[in-house]
Amino acid sequence: MNSILFKPAIIGTLKIKNRFIRSATMEGMSTPEGMPTPMLDNLYCKLAQGQVGLIVTSGAVIEAYPYFPQGLSFPLAIDTDDKIDAWQDTIDAVHASGAKIAMQLTSLGRQDMPEWRGEPPIAPSAVPVNETGVVPRQMTIKDIEIVVEKFAQCCCRVKKAGFDAVQLHGAHGNLINNFMSPYTNQRTDEYGGSIENRARFTTQIIKRTRELVGPDYPLMLKMNFDDFIEGGLKCDDAVKIAKAIVQAGIDCIEVSGGTYSESKEHISVKGIKKQRDESYFKDYAKALKQEISIPVVLVGGNRTFDVMEQIVGQGIADFVSMSRPFIREPELIQRWQEGNLEKAQCISCNQCFDKWIFNPLRCYAIACDNDAAIG
Ligand SMILES: Cc1cc2nc3c(=O)[nH]c(=O)nc-3n(C[C@H](O)[C@H](O)[C@H](O)COP(=O)(O)O)c2cc1C
Ligand code: SF4
């Protein structure tokens, strides 16, 4: 297939065979310790065999939960050195199909659960969460130093485990986003207020990580360009923050938006039917791309091949990433490569999004569609 979407491109030192990325998606398929299982390996192999260029894992936590409840899906975790070796077979299998794999790292910040932690969540400021009423504890400078070090040590473990890259989760109301957003960051010290100060937590993570992993290891960041909250992070400020982060040594930025606690409906928008509803963060990617020279990844509502081809062809983004379409069709890119360019079959009903915390990831609409066809 002669399309720019099937031309290789690089993120830092990492060559990726095409422009398709599987965006981080909670799989709910790990062991209670946050390590891979045969079910998770199988999913990543299907994505790799389905010709995804780069797979980003679900967000792996940087510290384990002491009181994580039974019956919920365990998150990945790479908080200790004994979790490094567990990944070798998974990564080898992905590489055997020509794909690359990055691990996403996350800390949930103010959205974290007090009952899982055994104490209140931590955040830049004690701004209550609307949805739950949870009031996070404002981080001290010492707390910030500890979390920066934890992120950097986890990045180092990701490299040692053999992942091709690491992605910091700085979107969707998680801790890194909490520092960038004026709604959740009301600090008056060197971590709050100005663009430089709101970028500082992230730039410190990147600089410390670079000391540990060296200049060549690919570091990526997923971040919000709109929190969709009054008083939250908006595109103009986000672009300025991104520029500071590029200076600190990030290799690639994935453009996203929305928060789980206050504006969930904007992360994975429901009911995408028309082409004009697709690729819903593309104006933000365009604004960012004009200001930075590292690769930009666009996530959110990418469904139609031609639309994505235009986005990459026009230089609005260098890569397109998808989450829900790959839940329904892990083999989607292979289908397109073979010439069947019908749009992704995902109907954006969000049943997978609403149920991931309780069950291993799957598409709940496939059975319904089949039922309708049979009925
Ligand atoms: C079931 C599910 C789990 C998700 N888990 C994560 C995650 O772990 N990390 C992350 O950055 N985004 C996560 N997302 C958001 C997606 O990566 C993506 O940003 C969003 O769904 C929009 O892309 P899409 O229209 O291709 O689905 C998740 C989305 C879904 C549907
Ligand atoms: S349940 Fe299936 S069709 Fe619905 S959003 Fe998820 S992947 Fe798409």
- Which strand order do you get reading across the main beta sheet? 3-4-5-8-9-10-11-12
CATH superfamily: Aldolase class I
Number of strands: 12
Distance between the termini: 37 Å
Beta-strand percent range: 5-15%
Model regions low in confidence, pLDDT < 50 over at least 5 residues: 370-375
Tally of helical segments: 13
Written overview of the protein:
By secondary structure, this protein is of the alpha/beta class. It has one domain: TIM Barrel. It has 13 helices and 12 strands. A hairpin with a 2-residue loop joins strand 1 (9-11) and strand 2. Helix 4 (141-161) crosses helix 6 (195-213). It is globular. The model is unreliable at 370-375 (pLDDT under 50). The chain binds flavin mononucleotide and iron/sulfur cluster.
What would you say about this model in short?
By secondary structure, the protein is of the alpha/beta class.
Task: Compile the SSE list and pairings.
Blueprint: E1 9-11, E2 14-16, E3 20-22, H1 38-49, E4 54-61, H2 88-96, E5 100-106, H3 114-117, E6 122-123, E7 137-138, H4 141-161, E8 165-170, H5 175-180, H6 195-213, E9 219-224, H7 235-248, E10 252-256, H8 282-289, E11 296-298, H9 305-313, E12 319-322, H10 324-328, H11 332-337, H12 351-355, H13 365-374
Parallel strand pairs: 3-4, 3-12, 4-5, 5-8, 6-7, 8-9, 9-10, 10-11, 11-12
Antiparallel strand pairs: 1-2
This protein binds flavin mononucleotide (FMN) and iron/sulfur cluster.
